[in-house]
Every structure is written in C-alpha cells, then in structure tokens.
Amino acid sequence: MKKPIIAITMGDPASIGPEISIRTLLNPTLYDTTKPLIIGDLNVLEKVQQLLKIEQVTFHRITSVQDALFQPGTIDVFDMELVDIDKLTFGEVSEMAGEAAFQYVVKAIELANENAVDATVTNAINKESINLAGHHFAGHTEIYAHYTNSAKYTMMLAHDNMRVVHVSTHVSLRQACDLVKKERVLDVIRIANDACKQLGIEKPTVAVAGLNPHSSENGLFGTEEAAEIIPAIEAAEAEGISVAGPVPPDTLFPKAMGGWYDIVVAMYHDQGHIPLKLVGFQYDQEAQKWNNVSGVNITLGLPIIRTSVDHGTAFDQVNKGTANPISLENAIDYAATLANHRLAQ
C-alpha cells in the first residue's frame, strides 16, 4: 500500500511542539508506514536540538513537498521562516509565536486541499498567542472548518478503544445547553458512525449521552432529552445506525471503557474531555512528572484529514527534555489509518 504523506505542524514555536516533533521523527519505524514532514521554522528546531543536545539529527530544508526525502535519520522541514530566533522566548505567550503557529496550520490545510499531502497532524497552539496575532479562532477545529468551508464537523477524542465526539466544544456551558438540538445531535451521530467505519469498524454502536443528570429521569431534571436528544436517536435508528441512549453520563463512560460501545456522543466539551484525559493522562506524584500523556484529537466532517495531540503547549516543560511524544505518535498513527482508508477507495 502507498505510504501516506503526513504534514505535521510544529505547533507554537515557544512550546514543547518542536521537541516532540524532533523526537517523534527520529523514530525510524515511523518511515515504514508513512512519509512525514514538519511544517515550521528550521531555526527553532535547530535551536531546540542544540539546547537539548539531541544527537544524530539531520534536518533537510524544503519549500515544496516534492523536495522531501522521507528518509529515516533525516527530518524534512517545510521552512516557513516566520520566527526571529533572537526574539523568541521559549515558554512564553507572544504575538510572533502565535502568528507563526497559525500560519503553519494554514499551510498544512493548503497542502491538504491541494492533495500535496494525504493527511495533516497538528501540535498544540496557544489560543492567547494566536489571538494576540489577530487571528480570533477558538482553536484548531474552527480554523480547519473555516479554511475548508466546512459547516458540519465535530471533534473526536480517542484513547485506545474509547472514542468521543462532541455536539459542542469551545462555547460557554450555558451556550452548550442551548446548542443541544435534534438536527445537531443527529448530524454528530452520523459523523460518529462514519468515523468508526473509516477506522475499520464495520458495524459500530454509537452511544449518546444525556445532557442532564440521569438523562433527566423522565423529565424530572430537564426536557432536553425528550425534546431534542431522543428524537435525534430515533431518526438515526430509522437510517439504520445502531444507537444506544440517551445513556446517563455518569454510567456511560465506564460502559464505553468496558467495550459496550464503539463511540460516544457527548453533549459538551468537558463531558467528553474529562473521561478521556482521566484515562490518557497519568501523573506520577512521587516522581513529579507525567508518565503518560496519550490520546488523539481528530476533526471529523472535513474534506481533509486532521488529527492532533490531545494536550496543550506545556510551557512549563519547554526544553527540559521531559516532554512526552506519545500523543503525537498516536496522532500520526490515526492520520495514517484514515489516509489509508481514503487511498484505498
């Protein structure tokens, strides 16, 4: 099978993104299944290599995907030349870093829209930095939706066999309740079902969370289940989708962990994010470090493939040599799986 070309954005230049990008692409087995390249600033990557004394790194500067070598031991860098390395302060919010991080994402989308790459993977951006640079987006998901002209999309988080998609994400909790509408819930159920099939699950079961405690207990604690969520579930079932719910949120996720469902539709950001990060993030209190920061963020409903690390910029860990690349590795694996599915069609 053809190896998919994966464009990986470096993330915020002041973050752990450069470090984990280098460490991930130094793994020679990555090249057995993919053709990876970094979109970022070569001078930042070289500086991080020097600061962390990472040996055996050869960078290959490119300005076109066609120039990439895709060889183990050599990291292809699509050099955007946006960062003045003498003015960059690692671990801090800045307009310059925000502008660079934003433009890396725009370039990745551009290359995917042109079919120059088969999938995109993003490292973390800092929302304050990109807003300082004048780009008023809530996050990667909204940037991708804007630059691909996508109206129906959602975020999926994945860790092992736990997968969660969201009816709403970066809005206030009050707004999130108002966004629980039949058509939106139905759209997300459809997207979730399609995503599972793209991941090789032939007959997925989609579990839909309730919005209210105990899924409203037949109207005792709210009306959203009866008025919006149940009608969406019934419509999905009429289309042949296997759907369970609305399942009380406090019992849904243990069941999902146990393999009852293939994917969960969460009603709002924290309802889906908290259980995923509880299983994917593991902190060793005695050693005072994160042993595991795994999980993948995937934007579904786009004409192109986008997966991402499921952690932030981690400014407190920058250039300490302790940043864990496992989430980026997982994101690349998911991107390759999705790309291979498309290439096979």
How does this model look, in words?
This protein is an alpha/beta fold. Helices cover 39% and strands 20% of the residues. It folds into 2 domains: 5-150 and 302-344, Isopropylmalate Dehydrogenase, CATH 3.40.718.10; 154-277, Isopropylmalate Dehydrogenase (3-Layer(aba) Sandwich), CATH 3.40.718. A hairpin with a 5-residue loop joins β13 and β14 (306-309). The chain is globular. The mean pLDDT is 93.
**Termini separation:** 12 Å
The level of helicity is: 25-40%
SSE-based structural type: alpha/beta
Strand line-up in the sheet with most strands: 3-4-2-1-5-14-13-6-7-10-8-9
- The H-level CATH homologous superfamily of the largest domain, spelled out, is Isopropylmalate Dehydrogenase
**What is the fold named in CATH at topology level of the largest domain?**
Isopropylmalate Dehydrogenase
Number of domains: 2
Report the average pLDDT across residues. Answer: 93
> H/E order of the elements?
EHHEHEEHEHHEEHHEHEHEHEEEEH
If helices are DSSP runs of H or I spanning 4 or more residues, what is the number of helices? 12
| CATH A-level architecture of the largest domain | 3-Layer(aba) Sandwich
Strand content: 15-25%
Form type:
globular
- Largest sheet, described in full? 12 strands, mixed
Radius of gyration: 20 Å
- What are the segments in which pLDDT stays under 50 over at least 5 consecutive residues? none
Q: Strand tally, please?
A: 14
CATH class of the largest domain: Alpha Beta
